[in-house]
Design goal:
single chain, alpha/beta
Length: about 110
């Protein structure tokens, strides 16, 4: 199964936060599942960190090396087709979340968030 992790799911997973359900944790940890994270989530983490709303005690590069690649999570790029996807959406409540969704569009991905 392909899993698209949203920003909070990813953060809760790497922190071992009990807010993450047991089901979500098991799905993420299952080596049979393909785990995906949009670069938009890292962008959101950087923004939240710069605003003082998040403190992960690591640089974004350390976060990627240790927790993204360290957990075999693939990073989804933001491409021009992602931006085309955005133009087809009627209303955007959370732009970075929507961009993450668009990055996974067409990949038969299950949203994990």
């Amino acid at each position: 199964m392909r899993l698209l992790l949203d920003t909070h799911t990813f953060i809760w997973f790497i922190e071992g936060n009990p807010e993450l359900s047991g089901l979500a944790k098991n799905l993420i940890e299952d080596p049979e599942n393909e785990r995906l994270l949009s670069i938009a989530s890292l962008w959101e983490i950087a923004i939240k960190t710069s605003l003082g709303r998040l403190n992960l005690n690591a640089s974004i590069q350390q976060l990627v090396d240790n927790h993204v690649y360290g957990n075999a999570i693939a990073l989804l790029p933001i491409t021009s087709s992602c931006l085309d996807c955005l133009t087809n959406l009627a209303f955007i409540i959370k732009p970075l979340l929507t961009l993450g969704y668009c990055a996974s569009y067409g990949r038969k991905t299950n949203y994990c968030g």
